[in-house]
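I'm curious: can you give me some protein's one-letter sequence along with its backbone structure tokens because I've never seen that pairing?
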Amino acid sequence: MSWLGFAGLLVVALLFVVFPLWRRAPRTNRVTLGVASNVAAFRARRQELDEQQGRGEIDTARHRELLAEAELLLVADAGVDSGTNAVPQRSGGAWLLALAGVVVIGVAVAGYVRLGAAPDLALRALLAQDSAVSSPELLTRLKERLVQRPDNTYYRLFLARLELEAGHPEDALAAYRELLQREPDATEVRAEYAQAMFLAADSKITDSVRAEAEQVLARDPGNAIALGLRGISAFQAGDYRAAIVAWNAVIAAAPASPEADAVRGAIAAARARLGEAPPPPLVRIAVTLGAGVPPDIPPDTPVFVFVREWQGPPMPVVARRLRLADLPITLEFDDTASLTPARPLASIGKIEVVARVALGGTPTPSPGDIEGRAGPFERGAETVAVELVIDQIVGAVATSSPGSAPPPAALSPGR
């Protein structure tokens, strides 16, 4: 909610209070209770007190006290005009009430802008702009907000990441150090800190980088960042076998992540240093667009390519996320690309291959998506080579074929 929206709600709330009071404060009030009605009310009160005394609810002293109060009230009411003459009363208090409402609104809005979420909303609006990431204005506002809210660990971590993306590794390191002083047990933050130290050292593993990475792995053995740094450390030290082990662990943790391809390339380089030929891929897929695909589809539209078991579970065995601009492309999959260790690609005997241009933006098929399918293929000792053309438009209901359930949304973090 913006500060203008907050002020609007405050005005509406005040109107609910002020308007009834304003309506109830006419410029001339008339007393309409007559003497006769006052006397009748007094008699009714006296009868009630007599009955209470008779039932023993009040004693004689209390009876006299309450009756005296009723008599005094009757005398006071008798001095008021019975209604034949109006008693004008000025109601200047309405203007005072309105002034008080304006003051309350001003103070509330000022406090909201100074202490509330208005600066956070401004940061959010700036982040919504694609060109704002790592921009000087965003960094400046983030630093200013941290002066006001120094204990906000999210902002400090965000600042560290933005400084690193902006090419300011020293500033990023300072932000990470400040954050680790406040959250020393945050392993993910410490892993990012080690990565920032690595980049600040011209992509070299120093003793400090190694120590930070190993400290992370002692608490979180599956941390992908620290495992990657361990692999780089082993590679730079000439221990290529240890580098392969570490990098295989990275792929096992996130086989469909954007970094997985780079890690596989590093593993191939380590094997080449050992004189080992890389194992042949289990599946090779050449993906192209059909001639009937509309040319006006945005180049950043996601393309999902996946292999699954023919007539088996709908969960893909391997998958990759691309962009339309990446096509045509040839992809190779081996066991390291398997999404789960429990179902490696080598264990699947018969496969189906699917590629989908996801106009809906998600792996789940949407009407209007364009896809290509091929299969079944018997997977044996030789590489299964598939030429896949994307040219079929998905209807309102996805075409039913064996094992045609969509891939899970978990594929979306991939490239």
